[in-house]
């Protein structure tokens, strides 16, 4: 997970398919601003498919847009992204999301976020947070929970949605107020 700007791009070959045809990828040269989670080495290049029709994720290379990118790192300065990976402009993130990247999300690395696609939903264990944006906000993947809450591990070992500065309380958090 990195914060970065894309500065240039070019089409490159990345091997051949089973029929011997070359597989094209777009290689973005990036300027990494911050590594939130990943290898010790900076990411220099981000690769994606050449179009959204084959799950490619285009980036603006004007050097003005900053992105939050969560992709698959090879650990050698290369990262791969698809339409299924989290790629958001930095300016589109809420203040809570920005703060959580630096401080809170790390507290939830041992927690599992379970998607709730339709009500009713239940967690299977105490180390889960139930993500309800999809079910409660008409298939919205970027809803109130995503923008304003973080799933973190509490002192008793359970996980819960948290918003604010004080440590989370032990009380159960209702699905209506994640």
Automatic annotation (TrEMBL):
Gene3D superfamilies, per database record: 2.40.50.120, Tissue inhibitor of metalloproteinase-1. Chain B, domain 1 (3.90.370.10)
Single GO molecular function: metalloendopeptidase inhibitor activity
Single Gene Ontology BP annotation: negative regulation of membrane protein ectodomain proteolysis
Localization annotation: Secreted
Ranges for domain NTR: 1-109
GO cellular component: extracellular matrix; extracellular space
InterPro entries registered for this protein in UniProt: Netrin_domain (IPR001134), TIMP (IPR001820), TIMP-like_OB-fold (IPR008993), TIMP_C (IPR027465)
Main location: secreted
Bridged cysteine pairs (disulfide): 111-159, 116-121, 129-151
UniProt keyword terms in alphabetical order: Disulfide bond, Metalloenzyme inhibitor, Metalloprotease inhibitor, Protease inhibitor, Secreted
Pfam families: TIMP (PF00965)
Family: Belongs to the protease inhibitor I35 (TIMP) family.
Xref: PANTHER family: METALLOPROTEASE INHIBITOR, METALLOPROTEINASE INHIBITOR 2
Protein name as annotated: Metalloproteinase inhibitor 2
């Amino acid at each position: 997970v990195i914060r970065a700007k894309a500065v240039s791009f070019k089409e490159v070959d990345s091997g051949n398919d089973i029929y011997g045809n070359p597989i094209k990828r777009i290689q973005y040269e990036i300027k990494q601003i911050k590594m939130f989670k990943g290898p010790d080495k900076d990411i220099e290049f981000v690769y994606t498919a050449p179009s959204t029709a084959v799950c490619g994720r285009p980036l603006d290379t004007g050097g003005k847009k900053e992105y939050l990118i969560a992709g698959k790192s090879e650990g050698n300065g290369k990262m791969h992204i698809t339409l299924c990976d989290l790629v958001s402009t930095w300016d589109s993130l809420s203040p809570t999301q920005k703060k959580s990247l630096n401080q809170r999300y790390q507290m939830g690395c041992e927690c599992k976020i379970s998607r709730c696609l339709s009500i009713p939903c239940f967690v299977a264990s105490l180390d889960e947070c139930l993500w309800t944006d999809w079910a409660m906000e008409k298939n919205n993947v970027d809803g109130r929970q995503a923008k304003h809450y973080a799933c973190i591990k509490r002192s008793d070992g359970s996980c819960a949605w948290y918003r604010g500065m004080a440590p989370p309380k032990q009380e159960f958090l209702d699905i209506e107020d994640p």
